[in-house]
Design brief:
heterodimer; A: alpha/beta; 2 domains; six-stranded mixed sheet; 37% helix; B: 252 residues; mainly alpha; 9 helices
Chain lengths: 299, 252
Amino acid sequence: MVIDTEGLTFNFGKQTVVKSLSLKVPEGSIYGFLGPNGAGKTTTIKLLLNLLKTQEGSIHIFEQELQSNRINILSQIGSLIEQPAIYLHLSGKENLLNRALLLQVPEKRVNEMLDLVHLTSAAHKKAGQYSLGMKQRLGIALALLSDPKLLILDEPTNGLDPNGIIEVRELLIRLVNQHQKTVFISSHLLAEVERMATHVGIINFGELLFQGSINDLQALNQPQVQIETENTVDAANFLKRNNFTITEVDDHHIYIPFTSKQNMGEINTLLNQNGYAIYSINKQQKDLEKLFLAITHTA
Amino acid sequence: MGFWSSVLLPLVLCLLLFIGFFNHSDKLSHSPGMVLWLQFAGAILGIMGSLILPMLIVFIAYSVNSIEHKADTWKTLFSLPISKLSVYAAKYFYAFFLVLLCLLLFVLFTLGFGNLLGVLKPELKFSEYNVASLLTQVYFKLFLSSLGILSIQFLLSLLFRDFLKPMGIGFVCTITGVILAGNGWTYAYLFPYSHPMLAIKAMEEGLKNTRGQGATPQITIDLFTQEIWVSLAVAVVIFIAGYFIVLKKSVK
């Protein structure tokens, strides 16, 4: 495990922001850390970076205890927390050079990073004049500068346009696949993380509600049969009388939990024989977004 | 910002004084060289101890820390593989360096403009007396006396995000310090904000004692007086205490 926390708890005064969190982030994964705004994501990340003192529980990163190996661990982490921390009176390149000096990274690396995040043409512009997306990309470049093994990114695609989001996503996938990095990325949008994450943790009100691989999450997600028919309410009532459970009915579709293909065929025949015209019938995975909402709401 | 203020402040003040002396050279032409120098340097030193130096320190301490507050980079600095002591000490010694630089420039500009006056207006007998070593000693003493304030202001600026708190506290303390030292309160030497004023006062008294002792009186500066030791002790203690506060502090 790259990140391994045990019973991590943090209080701001009387308010418990993180409740006995046990994160398990395996090596080489893209771990999507999901939760609505104010769920405790940023607090958790600050705990992982030793910016906030651990009050209860333990944090191990690279199998080492965080508190006693702080510098050793931090030297292998690149991070971006909330809005990127950039000196606005310096140019993008100066920001990187300044950091390179602190981390003793060769200057060549600065130019590579500018290239990587497509800021070479704006390298000499003052960072204060950067757009939100450019600042975000500069923040990612700063996080990647020291070539860390673990990247901790707090909502890195905030303020990026769809193109930018796709670029960041591809960059992160490339880093994990080709350079054996581990990425811990927080977001309040499942859809954004869903396409790249290998593992997912869902947090709300400081509690971890789900943790596992993206396949585990999908397995939680029961498939259902979607039937498009002319008079959905009548058809639904008819099916109910024939002992089918209906999960949802709207103007165009009826949803029934999927059990087997045979069962789907039976429904089809039954409706057809009783004069309900079926326009379409198919097996469907519930939208992960809805699942995410369901998980965060039941808590 | 802090850097330029510590360069421009001595330049501007000395330049103003230079212009003042230049325009009133006729009135001053009767004074002997030493008195001229003392008037020239004293014009700055007088308010230096009471107001300029403490306020300059308030400002330098603020500007060194506000860069990180403004760019929101404390969290980044403390999540880099650099010990917290290095970050804290590097910041502190930069502020320390700026104060030193500023006072050094005051010495250089005072000497430079004084000699320039002597050249431009030969009737002003600046060349009669060599003030360099005396001036250096006075400013060095001022520097030592200001270290206590520097530590306190540095810590305040590091802890508070806004300008008003450290500025307000610094201002009130400076005024208090001036009143305490000005009224000759016995224990004023225990209050850091009184130290620059006390340093100046000690010099002025030393000056009075030496007046009238022949043509070229010797002025000696007693560097390590009581208040200097207190100032140094406060500086060291607050610096160390500050480090432990930074160590314990959560970065939000």
